[in-house]
Structure formats: C-alpha cells, structure tokens
Specification:
- Chain B: InterPro entries: PAPS_reduct_dom, Rossmann-like_a/b/a_fold, SO4_adenylTrfase_ssu, Sulfate_adenylyltrnsfr_sub2.
- The complex is a heterodimer of chains A (635) and B (300).
- Chain A is an alpha/beta fold.
- In chain A, 29% of the residues lie in helices and 27% in strands.
- In chain A, helix 13 runs parallel beside helix 14.
- Chain B is globular.
- A 6-stranded mixed beta sheet of chain B has the order 3-2-1-4-6-5.
- Chain B is built from 8 helices and 10 strands.
- By secondary structure, chain B is α/β, with parallel strands linked by helices.
- Chain B folds into 2 domains: 195 residues, Rossmann fold (3-Layer(aba) Sandwich), CATH 3.40.50; 82 residues, no CATH class.
- The chains are: A alpha/beta (635), B alpha/beta (300).
- At the A-B interface, helix 1, helix 3, strand 2, strand 3 and helix 5 of A face helix 1, helix 2, helix 6 and helix 7 of B.
C-alpha cells in the first residue's frame, strides 16, 4: 500500500496515542445503590461525559426516552443508557448484574452495575466478586440509610478495600456543605465498624454532572477529587502483587513427550526462574525451570499473568493442584470455617453434599454447622438451621479431601469458592474461607486386619443394601419384611432398618423439617454402611424423599453394593390406603411437612428396580426384589 | 515490576477462560466467523495453549452468502496455522433456496445461521462453543455471562443463568446441554483494534478502505459481491471508497465510506467515530430488544 502523507500522519498520530496509552491500566468497580439514588443516572453521566456514547446510540436513546423516560419530554434520560433487558426496562428497575465499559486516556473501566434491593443481594455479591473498588450511592436528602449499610457490608465481605460514598443530588440540598459533612461523618463511623479504612466521600450531582468528571463550581468548599479523578487514581494492584506466589494449575500442557508445562493464571505474588516451589496438596518440592509464553520465555512473572510453568524435574502435577512459593505455603485442610452467601431458591441444608469449587479443584463438601446468620442490614448474628436465598452466614464445612487455600482476606482468588448443586448443576452459593479447622487432622482411619471381605466370606454371602424409597403407605416396609423373610429362609444374614423404628431410637432427636430429614438419612446411610462392613444384606425402608441424600447413601458404598428399589405408588393410592391415618391428619393440617402433602417427594431417576405398588400384591413385589438379588449375584 | 496494562489484563482473562473450557469440557469447539473478533479470539487461543495447538477445532457456519474475501481468508488462515476447520452449511436451507433476497433477512438468518448452528452443534455433539461476542456490542449483551448455559434445545433463558463469581466458571452440564463461552466479554471495539495493531494480527482486507462496487438501499451501502444480487431497474453499482466495520452476509452488511487503508487509520477513525459498529448490520435495526429475542432462540 502506498504511503500518502495522509497515511503517514495518521500512523504517527495513532502511534503517539498508543504510546501514551502504554501505561493505561484497568479498573473494575461496582456501583451500588437503588434507582431512587440516581445510580443509573450517575453511571450514564460517567459514560456520557467520557464521550463514549456513539451517535447512533444517542439516536436510539432519544427514541427510548419517549417510550420509557421518566425525566420529562425533551431531556435525555441518562439512566436508560445503562438499563438492560426489555422486561426490566418496562418495570423501570435493574435486576441483574450488567457490565459497562468506558475509557479515559489513563484507564479502562469495567463497571458491574447491580441492583440495590435486599432481594438482589446475590447479584451484588456476584458483581462485587470481581470488583476492585466500590462506588456507593447515597441521596443527600436522606443520608446513610439501611441500604447504604447493607451495600457497604457486602462489598467489605467480598474483600473490596477501596470504597467511595458518592453523596448524590447535592443540587436538591442547595449544594450545602454541612449536609455533606454530616453524612460523611456518619458514614466514616460506620465504615470503621466494618474495618474498612479507605473511604472517600464525594458530593456530586449526577443530573448536572457536578464533581462527576469535572470539579463543581457550585461547591467550591469541596477540594477533594472528582469521582473520575478518584477512579483514575486509585491503586488496587499493589496488594495482589505483594503477597506470596500462588498459581492454581488449570491445564497440563503436553504437546509432545519432550514438553510438560503447567498452565494457569498467577493468583498472587510473583515468581522468578530458579526459585524453589512447592506443589500442593501433595507437598512435593521443585524448582522453576522456565516461564513459557508464545511471546517468548520470561525471566519472571507476577499476579494476573496467564503463563505456563515448566519445573526442573518430572514430578506429578495435575489440574486442581496449587503451585506456591516454597517459603510461604498456603494451608491444606479438609475442614474450614467460611462466610457463605446462599444464592439458590432451594435452601442450603447442613449435611447435604454439594460440589465445592476452588480456584481449580472440585470436591464434595457439606456444611457441618451453621454457626450463625448475619443480618445484612444490622450486622446482628442470629441462629439458623438452614439458609435461604440471599442469606449470609458463618459456617463450618467438611470436604471429602484436603485442598490448598489461603484465607480470603489474604488472597481473593485462592480463598474463594463456589458451591454447585450436584443434580441441577446450578451455582447455588459462594464462600470466602476464614480459617482451617484442625479437628479432623488427628483422627486417622485405623486399618483393621479383619475387613469387609473377610466378614462376608465367613457368612458365605455378598453384602449389600436394598434401599426401599417411596411415599408413606406405598408398602415399603411390607415388601422389605417379606424380602427379609425369604432371605432368612435361604440362610442369609440380614438386617432391616425401618424409618419408624430408627426414629424411636438413634434418630429420636430429629423432626421432619428438610434439614432434619437430611440428617436422618445421613445417619441411616452410615449405619447401613457399617452393616455392609459387617457382611450383612441390609434392607433399608425409609421414605427418603430427596435425591441428594439417596445419592449420598449410594456414594458411601462400593459400586454394586447399593440397590435402590423405588416402591412406586401414586399419592392417591397411598392416601386411600392411609394405614396409619397420617394422610388424614396431614390434610387436616395436623402434620406439617408431611411428604407428598406439605413436603416434596423426588422420585428416583434411575433406580435399580421400580416396583409398581399401585395394585400388585406384596408377595409378587418381594419376588421381584429377590430376582434382582439373584441377577446381581448377591444370592 | 510495573502493573499490567489494560490489554494485558484482558488478554490474560481471555486465556484463563479458554483454558478452563479446555479443562472442563469433553468436546469444545471455537465458532469462527472470520471477522476481527474471531481473529482476536483465535490469536488468544494460540497463546493460551502454546506450545500446544488449541485442543479444539474451529467451526464456521457458512450461510453461503459471506463475502468471497472472507471465505478465502478463512481457508488461508486455517491452512497456515494447521488447524482443524469444520465448515457447516444447512443443506436443507440450500435445497429450499433460502437467501436474503428471496426470503428477507429474518428468515435467512434464522435458517442459514441460527438453525444451521444448532444443526452443527448437534451433529458433532459439542458441549461447549466459544463465540466472539462482546458485552459492549448491544444492551442485552451487557448482562450475558462468560459461561452462558443453553438447554438441550439450545435455548438461552435470561432468567435462569448461573451466578458467575470471581474467575470460577461453572461448566457442569447434563448430557445434551451445552455452554456458550464468550472469552471476549470484557473487550470493547477499541480494545479489539488496539490489540490487533499491537499484536499484528491478520484480518480480512474488507476492513480496509478500497474502491468497491456498491449500491445504496434505504441509506445503507451494500456491496455487490457476486452475480446473485438482484438489481432494481436503473440501479447500477458504482465504485466507492468504502470499508466494513463488521462482517457478515454481504447483502446484510452495510459498508461505510472511508479512506482508512491502514490499521492506524482505522483506529483513528474509530477514535473519532460518530456511529457505533452495529449500525452497519441490517439485522439490528428492528425494535430495541430484537437481539434479546434472537438470543433466546439460539442466535449467538
């Protein structure tokens, strides 16, 4: 292509521009506040003033303002720039996390725009998780409100250390200095309680633009930074780079037999070729041989960089491992205390297994204890047996294997985790690790000389669990009883665990709430497992209404040892039979949480055997179970 | 050590996302649309897995109405890089003679793009598909997740998206379900061009201004790329100095008049831009929420 003078000048101009931007950094921040505080207007103002509004976006905006605008005809409604999906626009509220972008010559900004109401706590938590600074909105006429406190607590919980309180609508209080100072003092006192030190208060008017991007002439008494000055200047990366070296291994890079690298993003600190490293949880030591990137090998690398590390020996490293500086190791534990935020409509039940995902490891985990819930408005601590959507709580968790981590206050990447439902795969909660619990560290499994196989051999049988599940009155216990009679007649060693009987003894402290049902089944699953260890064929006859817990029971046993028998009778059939008169009482409202009426029954998706218990006689059903055992080689 | 620049941070984030997909999924694919965003995405994939090759194929859903230069560029790049390129065309649509001139943009896009994409995903059983969409492109995309869950029928349910926290992406799915992954979510158009310039990434020549035969229809400049374009009586293509800010099917992609023939000139034009990039796409000029409706149907 020929270089005309026009080309040459464009090239020079742009190259100068790009050079000037070589040090341009990135800041991710969150805005918190409600529609009434003018949050969307403030954000719209930032975007507008930073001249990132392209002409046709403005044109379509003018169109939209006529349909939805709330500022009167003729004026641009800046809030419409940032409100998103169609349904939300018509309701006039923002109900999800939206990400916005704008840039100045010094910084590119990614803004997480989240709704402010309490029912959207999870959205705010989501937005805050990736933010490095937070802009909170307060209405100058109203001061520090409950919601301001709530937002502050949430962003501090998520580890954001740089907070701005934008005291908005100064135009409506005649740009009054005393109002600003009173609200600032109130807020600083509260922030100190939270342990947040870096608080900046700025008097603004989003509507007029005062102190948003340009210093206000109407508030000469304010000499601090404008909101944009603050955002351009705040230093958020220093903390991350100062800590000890951490890199979770994402992917093992093996293009051929001669190269084995470990790819990941550095989560903290920095590292140099030749430095000693340790790979966790195994604790194997090595030395860094190379830092590989497509742009050439590096001598050193730091937090935030995506690299591939090559170690100087052939130790075994896989996804889920954490490579750390040998001098300053993270903790490795299978039990810890953490702050949890619950994000699902289905409540969290202690004892129920969830998948827990840390930076790269995925393990099974359960909440063993809810220490207390935190009221996000008042910070009061209250007791809880389960957690509902948007609850924040301090909990103890137990994992099925040890994972490496740092306390969240030390490292937001190696101290964070999410909880995933094992059946729906939804992300149902998130957590921030506080510290490891030592209690499990000193209890080791004792290896016994006589094992399950030896005990089973002595009885000449193959132990297993027949798990009968179904509605009350379906006929579980009747069938289980007949099955046991037949096995006994064949000389087999058996045992039956029956829901009603166990609830009179081992589980007499448990009621019928969802959390107690989870614990009920957990205990029975453990007892059944011990009996299988003893070499017995165990019939378990429990309603066991939840898939999660039946799956837990299955996973406590070896493959082939758990046989799920779905005693399938319709609610109508069971209710017509009503052998114990329970349905009648439940319909009369005398038994809350009765399965099938006040509490759900989740039928098995793939039971080993489904018995049609609507009409067939119990003898025929028992025969089918015995046939199953024969087919599986148990008898 | 100095802090990372904004492009370095965006690059690292995209690489992190791609590696997560490679590690979490059985059978991922990268949707390659040949445009500048795809060029950047491909470049990032080369970086993410270096010295290995990206552990997934590229898939181009060919509507048969792409600019000829796009197809040539696609084949050349795949060959140069030695990558596995799959090209899928909806043969049912071809058999029915579906095209933008005969059936209009809505039907054409639905059959040859949206339905075709679903066919290809089902045909190969992909469980994750990278797309080059950015959150800054359009309002409904501002709330899109990086890992966007799709049902067995490829539908996107805006009310049922998973919370996405830190950089912990939840890619767990049941059989038949899939995830669309958007590693460029946090890039803006300006970032894309700056990065192309900085990394010297090859892009389709259509982005650069050249004399091209165009006709003006409803204020949009449409390039006459082949003989399939019907001309109204009296309508004659004239050579004008134009370039494209976005690339798609040639009858649906408006050109802009420009003299920008080099990357710096494009970036300068961008900085002085008075019209945003999607203005050139005929498809977006319906009601404000049209993209949202299309996404629910499975359009990227």
């Amino acid at each position: 292509m020929t270089q005309t003078p026009e080309h040459a000048s464009a090239t020079a101009e742009v190259e100068a521009y790009l050079r000037a931007q070589e040090d341009k950094t990135l800041l991710r921040f969150i805005t918190c506040g409600s529609v009434d505080d003018g949050k969307s207007t403030l954000l719209g103002r930032l975007l507008y003033d930073c001249q990132l509004l392209f002409e046709d976006q403005l044109a379509s905006l003018e169109n939209d303002s006529a349909r939805f605008g709330t500022t009167g005809s003729g004026n641009l409604d800046l809030a419409l720039l940032v409100d998103g999906l169609a349904a939300e626009r018509e309701q006039g509220i923002t109900i999800d996390v939206a990400y916005r972008f704008f840039t100045t010559d010094r910084r590119k900004f990614i803004v997480a725009d989240t709704p402010g109401h309490e029912q959207y706590t999870r959205n705010m938590v989501t937005g805050a998780s990736t933010a490095e600074a937070a802009v909170l909105l307060a209405d100058a006429r109203k001061g520090v409100l409950t919601q301001t406190r709530r937002h502050s607590y949430i962003v501090s919980l998520l580890g954001i250390r740089h907070l701005v309180l934008a005291i908005n609508k100064m135009d409506l209080v005649d740009w009054d200095r005393e109002t600003f100072e009173r609200i600032s003092a109130d807020y600083r006192a509260f922030a100190t309680e939270l342990g947040v030190e870096a608080v900046t208060c700025i008097p603004v008017s989003a509507l007029t633009g005062d102190n948003v991007t340009t210093a206000s002439e109407r508030m000469p008494w304010y000499t601090g930074p404008t909101l944009l000055d603050y955002l351009e200047g705040v230093d958020v990366e220093r903390d991350l780079r100062a800590g000890p070296f951490r890199m979770p291994v994402q992917w093992v890079n093996r293009p051929n037999l001669d190269f084995r690298g470990f790819s990941g993003t550095i989560a903290g600190g920095r590292v140099r070729v030749g430095e000693p490293l340790v790979v966790l949880p195994a604790g194997k030591r090595s030395t860094l041989a190379r830092i590989v990137t497509m742009d050439g090998d590096r001598e050193q690398a730091g937090a935030g960089e995506a690299v591939t590390l090559v170690l100087d020996d052939e130790i075994d490293v896989s996804r889920g491992d954490l490579i750390a500086g040998a001098e300053s190791r993270p903790e490795v534990a299978d039990q810890f205390a953490a702050h949890l935020v619950w994000m699902d409509e289905q409540p969290l039940l202690p004892g129920r297994p969830y998948l827990l995902r840390t930076a790269t490891a995925t393990v099974n985990a359960q909440v063993t204890e809810i220490k207390h819930k935190v009221n996000v408005n008042t910070l009061e601590q209250t007791a809880a047996k389960h957690l509902e959507l948007n609850d924040v709580a301090v909990c103890n968790l137990a994992l099925d294997r040890a994972v490496p981590f740092d306390p969240y206050v030390d490292n937001r990447e190696t101290g964070a985790f999410i909880l995933v439902d094992r059946i729906t795969n939804a992300t149902v909660g998130c957590g921030m690790v506080d510290f490891a619990l030592r209690r499990a560290a000193n209890i080791h499994h004792h290896a016994m000389e006589i094992d399950k196989a030896a005990r089973a051999a002595a009885k000449g049988q193959k132990p297993c669990v027949l798990w009968f599940t179904g509605l009350s009155g379906a006929g579980k216990s009747t069938v289980a009883d007949l099955v046991e009679q037949r096995l006994h007649a064949m000389g087999r060693h058996t045992m039956t665990l029956d829901g009603d009987n166990v609830r009179h003894g081992l589980n007499r402290d448990l009621g019928f709430t969802a959390e107690d049902r989870v614990e009920n089944i957990r205990r029975v699953a453990e007892v059944a497992r011990l009996m299988v260890e003893a070499g017995l064929i165990v019939c378990v006859s429990f309603i066991s209404p939840f898939r999660s817990e039946r799956r837990l029971a299955r996973e406590r046993l070896a493959d082939g040892e758990f046989l799920e028998v779905f005693v399938d009778a319709t609610l109508e059939t069971c209710e017509a039979r009503d052998p114990k008169g329970l349905y009648k009482k439940a319909r009369a409202g005398e038994i809350p949480n009765f399965t099938g009426i006040g509490s759900p029954y989740e039928p098995p998706e793939a039971p080993e055997l489904r018995l049609d218990a609507n009409g067939s006689d119990p003898e025929t059903l028992a025969e089918q179970v015995v046939e199953l055992l024969a087919a599986r080689g148990v008898i | 050590m100095s802090y990372q620049t904004h492009l370095q941070r965006l690059e690292a984030e995209s690489i992190h996302i791609m590696r997560e997909v490679a590690a979490q999924f059985r059978n991922p694919v990268m949707l390659y649309s040949i445009g500048k965003d795809s060029s950047v995405m491909l470049h990032l994939a080369l970086k993410a897995f270096y010295p290995s090759k990206p552990p997934f194929p590229l898939l181009h859903v060919d509507t048969t109405w792409k600019f000829r230069e796009m197809v040539a560029f696609r084949d050349r790049r795949a060959a140069e890089l030695g990558l596995d390129l799959l090209v899928h065309i909806n043969q049912e649509g071809v058999a029915q003679g579906i095209g933008p001139f005969t059936h209009g943009s809505a039907v054409h896009t639905d059959v040859m793009k949206t339905q075709s994409l679903k066919q290809a995903l089902d045909l190969y059983g992909f469980d994750a598909a990278f797309g080059g969409a950015r959150r800054d492109e359009e309002k409904s995309r501002a709330k899109e997740r990086v890992f966007s869950f799709r049902t067995r029928s490829h539908r996107w349910d805006p009310k049922n998206q998973r919370p996405e926290l830190w950089n912990l992406y939840n890619g767990r799915i049941n059989k038949g379900e899939s995830i669309r992954v958007f590693p460029l979510s946090n890039w803006t158009e300006l970032d894309i061009w700056q990065y192309i310039y900085q990394e010297q990434i090859p892009v389709v020549p259509l982005y650069f201004a050249a004399p091209r035969p165009v006709v003006e229809r409803d204020g949009t400049l449409i390039m006459v790329d082949d003989e399939r374009m019907p001309l109204a009586p009296g309508e004659t293509p004239e050579a004008r100095m134009v370039r494209f800010r976005t690339l798609g099917c040639y009858p649906l992609t408006g050109a802009v008049e420009s003299r920008a023939q080099t990357l710096p000139e494009i970036i300068r034009e961008m900085l002085l831009a008075r019209t945003s990039e999607r203005q050139g796409r005929v498809i977006d000029q319906d009601a404000g929420a049209s993209m949202e409706a299309k996404k629910q149907e499975g359009y990227f």
